Amino acid sequence: MKTTPTATRVVPDPAGRPLMRFTYDPATELLVGEWLQDLSPEVVRLGATATFERLVEWPARWALSDGSHVAGDWLDLLPWLEYELMPLLATNGLRAIAYWITLDPATQLGLSLLQRATDGALPIATFTDEPSARRWLVEQGAPRAVA
């Protein structure tokens, strides 16, 4: 049985510093985006745009956003995420996003507001541990191997 290797790419910010590390598993159609910088509106816009670019390159249906070791206030970006990015992600085949986050209050608030704003158009949920995030993706229809 031939297996397709997992793809990995580190995307830099405009200054050349690592912004996000993406890993894609074609067998499960899972895209994992690991944030490598603390969050700000600029960093989140750059990272979200890079995520969309990976979805164009790799046909992921499921996403795990790993912000487990970063924090920051990016609330000013909520309208762009709600009205532009999330519909674009859904239109391009993404079925659900699990956010693995820290206990940072600004991050939790932002994702809570985003979750309410998307109102199920693209299912999203937040978790403070990776196994719970992966189990939720399986509950949304991802292959069991995601968990």
Describe the 3D structure.
It is built from four helices and six strands, in the order E-E-E-H-E-H-E-H-E-H. With 147 residues, the protein is an alpha/beta fold. It has a six-stranded mixed sheet with strand order 1-2-3-4-5-6, sandwiched between helices. Helix 1 runs parallel beside helix 2 and helix 2 packs across helix 3. The model has no long low-confidence stretch (mean pLDDT 91).
- Low-confidence spans: none
Report the count of strand segments. Answer: 6
Mean pLDDT metric? 91
Choose one word for the global shape: globular
**Radius of gyration from CA coordinates:** 14 Å
Q: In terms of structural class, how would the helical and strand content be classed?
A: alpha/beta
- Summarize the main sheet: 6 strands, mixed
Which percent band covers the strand fraction? 15-25%
Helix-strand pattern, N to C? EEEHEHEHEH
Q: What is the fold's blueprint, element by element?
A:
Layout: E1 7-12, E2 18-25, E3 30-35, H1 41-57, E4 62-67, H2 78-91, E5 96-101, H3 105-118, E6 124-127, H4 130-139
Parallel strand pairs: 3-4, 4-5, 5-6
Antiparallel strand pairs: 1-2, 2-3
Give structural attributes.
single chain, 147 residues, alpha/beta, six-stranded mixed beta sheet
How would you sum up this structure in a few lines?
With 147 residues, the protein is of the alpha/beta class.
